[in-house]
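Postdoc handover notes: sequence design on the structure in folder B. Input tokens:
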């Protein structure tokens, strides 16, 4: 079998690029490892009224108004637990784009444009994080 050696310049380029490509791959994996920070999408006045009720020993239901928009909608909420706090972020998605909130709405939109989500609850103070506000909503 006849093996042809790569020209000297090609071998040098490959040796030079290998660490660079390895670093890019490592940065890509590290960038995906952490969760994206949560951020508010709506002002509180856009989603009022917001009501919270206990539906089980370990769950609450949150109802909120979905603003009627032509290009975006709210499929549910994201939430984060931080000690004794449970922060709620109402998700806003562009129509036609993939969007996966942590808790999806469990009821279809009604004539009042009201959505309901259920999330785990373990006696934390629940706060609604909206644009420019951080408001306690339960208990």
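Designed sequence:
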């Amino acid at each position: 079998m006849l093996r042809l050696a790569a020209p000297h310049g090609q071998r040098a380029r490959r040796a030079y690029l290998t660490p660079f490509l390895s670093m890019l791959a490592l940065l890509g994996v590290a960038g995906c490892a952490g969760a994206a920070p949560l951020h508010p999408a709506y002002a509180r006045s856009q989603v009022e009224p917001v009501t919270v009720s206990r539906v089980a020993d370990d769950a609450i239901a949150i109802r909120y108004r979905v603003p009627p928009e032509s290009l975006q909608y709210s499929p549910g909420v994201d939430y984060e637990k931080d000690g004794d706090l449970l922060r709620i972020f109402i998700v806003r998605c562009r129509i036609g784009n993939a969007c996966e909130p942590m808790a999806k709405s469990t009821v279809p939109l009604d004539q009042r444009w009201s959505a309901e989500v259920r999330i785990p609850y373990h006696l934390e103070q629940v706060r609604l994080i909206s644009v420019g506000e951080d408001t306690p909503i339960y208990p």
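Context for whoever picks this up: Residues 17 and 23 are 10 Å apart (CA to CA). Don't rerun without checking with the PI first.
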